[in-house]
Amino acid sequence: MTRVLSCIQPTGDVHLGNFLGALRPWVEGQHEKDAFHGIVDLHALTITEQPDVVGQATLRLGAVLFAVGLDPDVATVFVQSHVTEHSQLGWIMECQVSFGELSRMTQFKDKASKREHEFISAGLFTYPALQAADILLYDTDEVPVGEDQRQHVEITRDIAIRFNHRFGDTFVLPKAVMPKAGARVMDLQDPSSKMSKSAGSDTGLISLMEDPADIMKKFKRAVTDSETEVRYDREAKPGVSNLLEILSACTGEAPQDLATRYTQYGPLKTDTGEAVVELLRPIQARYNELMADRGELQALLRKGAGKAREVAAATLERAQAHLGLLPA
Ligand code: AMP
Ligand code: TRP
């Protein structure tokens, strides 16, 4: 069975865009492939000096992943730092990648330039080596990623090829694949930008755990345009089309078909808000249950870490043996 790995950083709260664009496709895909899902807390450490915040965010993200429907008996959901092989292989990867290669990573250049006057950790620079370890530890065939992460999968392939060439066949070569298509959710106040936690204000963002009354308020205030016609046209009518697309993601009907049912913006906003509230209601209920029973939630994450470690430990051992490190 094809093995697929997707990882998500525990930074900030999950929003509707993350859910419809990424997490829901993960849930739909969990039976088709051997799916591993890592909450990559060590990656989040590269830009925070508050490890406790990362820990809390990790727990909440774990609850979200199970609440949206990842089944611990089907998919392997684990926390990166619980599987110590990541750090161990990460160092080995750092020694297989050059300073020059890491210097060419556009994500590093972007993130470092945004933090010009702040602390730029060495971890932010060597981040792709840790990501290579994440991927290679699981003999991963496919890594579904968007454009921004392709370069990191490419460098992982380069490292794997180099290692295999230097030390003998050790790693499966991974391939970046297009993620299962999910919806692309735009900011409700600025429908030309993706809904994102890095937006200036959160009036255009729906958090997955947001209160129903607040969700309704945000949809009622969603920016549309100065016309009155309800029509699906992403270019000319980004606000209206975003509402139609969100409603479509909730109901399964095509946005073009939904558009024919409305003659005014008001009812479209209300219906979309209500559909989102209903879509999130069971997820919020399961999330609250999981968060109320921390022991059970941590047991689920331990189970995932156990399954992950079985694969990761064998790969690390193989890499160490091929490198010729003295066995303990
Ligand atoms: P991020 O939190 O931006 O790293 O995103 C985590 C995952 O959610 C990635 O797979 C993104 O492609 C996806 N995602 C983030 N924002 C959106 C959005 N507004 N619409 C659809 N998918 C999104
Ligand atoms: N770098 C990825 C991001 O910023 C997160 C990530 C870490 C990842 N390790 C991974 C993604 C392994 C896929 C596979 O979104």
SSE layout:
Elements: E1 3-8, H1 16-29, E2 34-39, H2 41-44, H3 51-67, E3 76-79, H4 85-94, H5 99-103, H6 106-114, H7 122-137, E4 142-144, H8 147-167, E5 175-177, H9 212-220, H10 238-251, H11 255-259, H12 265-292, H13 294-323
Parallel strand pairs: 1-2, 2-3, 4-5
The site of adenosine monophosphate has 11 residues, from helix 1.
Account of the 3D structure:
The chain is 55% helix and 7% strand. With 328 residues, the protein is mainly alpha-helical. The strands form two sheets. Strands 1-2-3 form a three-stranded parallel beta sheet. The longest helix is centred in the last third of the chain and has 30 residues, at 294-323. The chain is globular. The two termini are 34 Å apart. The structure holds adenosine monophosphate (AMP) and tryptophan. Adenosine monophosphate binds next to α1.
Keywords, separated by commas or semicolons:
single chain, 328 residues, mainly alpha, Rossmann fold, Tyrosyl-Transfer RNA Synthetase, binds adenosine monophosphate, binds tryptophan
CATH architectural category of the largest domain: 3-Layer(aba) Sandwich
- The percent of residues in helical segments reads 55-70%
Please state the overall shape, judged from the principal axes of the Cα atoms. Answer: globular
**Largest β sheet strand count, sense and barrel closure:** 3 strands, parallel
Strand portion: 5-15%
- By secondary-structure content and strand pairing, the structural class works out as mainly alpha
State the CATH class of the largest domain. Answer: Alpha Beta
Q: Spell the H/E element sequence.
A: EHEHHEHHHHEHEHHHHH
- The Rg value, from CA coordinates, equals 21 Å
Lateral arrangement of strands in the main beta sheet: 1-2-3
Bound ligands, named by name, code or SMILES: adenosine monophosphate, tryptophan
| Domain module tally | 2
Total helical segments: 13
Number of strands: 5
| Low-pLDDT segments | none
Q: If you average the pLDDT, what whole number results?
A: 95
- What is the fold-level CATH name, i.e. the topology of the largest domain? Rossmann fold
Terminal CA distance reads 34 Å
CATH superfamily of the largest domain: HUPs
